[in-house]
Specification:
75% helix; 0% strand
Length: 163
């Protein structure tokens, strides 16, 4: 942790040069602090600055990808036509509630590891790589659990109404 404090400004500058935004770099460095506190290296670190640069770069890339995905989503939402004056009817609300109940039931009945992966990624929006790291499983295993969870959900939900 002392190396992190000692090299903090240098690491922020490194990230700012790489990603072009000082506030982004500072946000990533907060993530680095949390990461280092929660997941101390398992072996001795001989070059702390290199280790911290690697960790900060990987976390910055992850954060950048998440933010880029959000920006793309927001931009795609801007292209949607304005909604009409459709107000959900009581029948619409009841149908939505029933679908939600079915989804909750499906998720609760997934095998434990599959449920854990599905909830972390789909509900809490944790990136697949981080889910794999937290659960100490491969990314392929994460993908397998997500496919199984999605298949279970699709199998129980009615087909969309093509109105």
């Amino acid at each position: 942790m002392s190396a992190l404090l000692h090299h903090y400004d240098e690491l922020v500058d490194h990230l700012r040069r790489r990603f072009g935004d000082r506030s982004f770099a500072r946000d990533v460095m907060q993530d680095v602090c949390v990461h280092v506190l929660e997941q101390a290296p398992r072996t001795a670190v001989h070059t702390p600055l290199a280790f911290l640069r690697r960790v900060s770069t990987h976390l910055a890339i992850d954060r950048y990808r998440v933010e880029a995905g959000r920006r793309a989503h927001v931009e795609s939402m801007a292209e949607l036509p304005e909604p009409g004056s459709h107000h959900p009817t009581e029948e619409d609300r009841l149908s939505a509630r029933q679908e939600l109940d079915v989804l909750i039931d499906v998720i609760e009945n997934l095998p434990p590891r599959c449920r854990e992966v599905f909830v972390m990624h789909k509900i809490h929006q944790i990136p697949q790589a981080e889910v794999a790291q937290r659960l100490n499983i491969s990314r392929q295993m994460v993908e397998k659990h997500l496919k199984a969870g999605m298949a279970a959900c699709r199998a129980r939900l009615p087909s969309p109404d093509p109105r």
